[in-house]
Amino acid sequence: MKLRFLSIFAAAALLAACESAPSDTGTKGGAGQTTPMTGAKTIAPGSKEDFVANVGDRVFFDFDKTSLRADAKATLAKQAAWLKQYANYSMTIEGHADERGTREYNLALGEKRANAVKEFLAANGVAAARVKVVSYGKERPVALGSNEAAWSQNRRGVTVLN
Known about the structure:
Blueprint: H1 2-18, H2 48-55, E1 58-60, H3 70-85, E2 91-96, H4 103-123, E3 131-137, H5 148-154, E4 156-161
Helix pairs in contact: 3-4
């Protein structure tokens, strides 16, 4: 009985492995769908994907600093314009730090960075009531390593749409 079950299972697995996936050559439309013949995904205006891909969801800070750099201000100005246009979103600003320093110090630094982002957005017309801040300090690095290349990516403020 076990042999019969195993042979049926093996035959089904063999057939499943030989099946080819259907090809898509047309446009389905909508967010996240593919365009004809290119395989590129379209992004719906006003979607979270639109925000991340076309506006930018993060800004970076210098070592041990909470002040916004010129490139960060440019990104945040675009965020503010997008967020004013799509007022249905609330957001959480995540503050992050690199691995250097104590856990407590980096949590405080991350909070100051997140608040700097919030204050900039509020000064540029985004209602402060829509914005929540949280600090992860050094607990959620995006780049691993103990060098400036990794550290510079981890010193950031990230705008997460809710």
